[in-house]
Amino acid sequence: MSDAAKTALLSVADLGVRFDGERSVNALNGVSFELAQGEVLGLLGESGSGKSVTLRALLRLHDPRRTTQTGRISVEGADVMALEGRALERYRGGVASMIFQEPGLAFDPVYTIGAQIAETVRAHEPGDARAARARALEMLDLVQIPQARRRYDAYPFEMSGGMRQRAMIALALACKPRLLLADEPTSQLDRESAAAVIGLIQAANRDSGITALVVTHDPAVGAAFGRTVTIRDGRVGAEGRAGEEFVVVGRDGTVQLPPDTLDVLPPRSLARAVRTAHGVELRPVSPEQE
Ligand SMILES: Nc1ncnc2c1ncn2[C@@H]1O[C@H](COP(=O)(O)OP(=O)(O)O)[C@@H](O)[C@H]1O
Ligand SMILES: [Mg+2]
């Protein structure tokens, strides 16, 4: 791999998120990690460990009136913490975009799927309504929605969960972002749809070189991607796929990556993803083995 390909696309340093309220909650305390350009990383963690808070922080989605966010986030060298106004809007969806856990929530129920994808395209790119429609159709095709033309005019409730999740991936990829954040993208899906979604993320990485951070609580899903790190609140532990890589999580939730884990492993085939999604065993690695 060339040196350019190893440049960090995403760099997170000492990221902290505190929710201020009657009782303030320190959800993240100094999380640090990097993603190389073109890398797919699985972020594993139990429920409540801070996975969604991390992803939302990366898109600056936390309400600043109720949240204190500290640390540094850099995407393609840009200081994400400093983005404001139009620059922040351009960043969201244009540079980094998110696939949410519940596809039903990502779409507005009163507009068609196609119209919502086209609207996103128009918000980010020059071009008229026709060009936006063409791009939306192209994206629905890309995520292998059968009869994309007909589905363009479907409302979210007219689609199955698996189809909606594909449509959300189409929405997330529509403006050709360089960083894809996926929050438990398979947890609401049956096995077959889950495997398809994993395959689509892998294909976007392979074909467009997109960098992706895929959050999951399911080690088998994490194992479908090249490298996984674990986020775990309040416990020192390390886990990884059988000797390939591991991460030490501090008592304060800090994620520390050994520097040599930034090498991208070969992309896995969908067939392998399906296999691993059915019963991979994770061997815990104790910190002493580092
Ligand atoms: N808006 C919020 N206000 C207060 N606490 C929150 C908020 N969002 C998340 N939390 C807390 O932060 C912690 C991490 O949550 P989250 O990132 O959603 O976990 P998960 O790893 O399951 O995605 C949890 O303890 C959760 O209760
Ligand atoms: Mg979550």
The overall strand count is: 13
Query: Beta-sheet strand percentage?
Result: 15-25%
Question: SSE order, as H and E?
Answer: HEEEHEEHEHHHHHEHEHEEEEHE
Distance between the termini: 25 Å
Fraction of helical residues: 25-40%
By secondary-structure content and strand pairing, the structural class works out as alpha/beta
Task: Count structural domains.
Answer: 2
Taking all Cα atoms into account, the compactness measure Rg is 19 Å
Unique ligands:
adenosine-5'-diphosphate, magnesium ion
Which helices and strands occur, and which strands form pairs?
Blueprint: H1 3-6, E1 8-19, E2 25-36, E3 40-44, H2 51-58, E4 67-75, E5 78-79, H3 85-94, E6 96-99, H4 103-106, H5 113-124, H6 129-142, H7 148-152, H8 161-173, E7 179-183, H9 191-208, E8 211-216, H10 219-222, E9 227-230, E10 237-240, E11 247-249, E12 255-256, H11 270-276, E13 283-284
Parallel strand pairs: 3-8, 3-9, 6-7, 7-8
Antiparallel strand pairs: 1-2, 1-4, 4-5, 10-11, 10-13, 11-12
Helix pairs in contact: 5-6, 6-8, 8-9
Magnesium ion binds next to α2.
Can you characterise this structure?
The protein has 290 residues and is of the alpha/beta class. It has two domains: 190 residues, P-loop containing nucleotide triphosphate hydrolases (Rossmann fold); 81 residues, no CATH class. The strands form three sheets. A five-stranded parallel beta sheet has the order 6-7-8-3-9, with helices on both faces. Strand 1 and strand 2 form a beta hairpin. Helix 6 packs across helix 8. The longest helix has 18 residues. It is globular. The structure holds adenosine-5'-diphosphate and magnesium ion. The site of adenosine-5'-diphosphate has 11 residues, from strand 2 and helix 2.
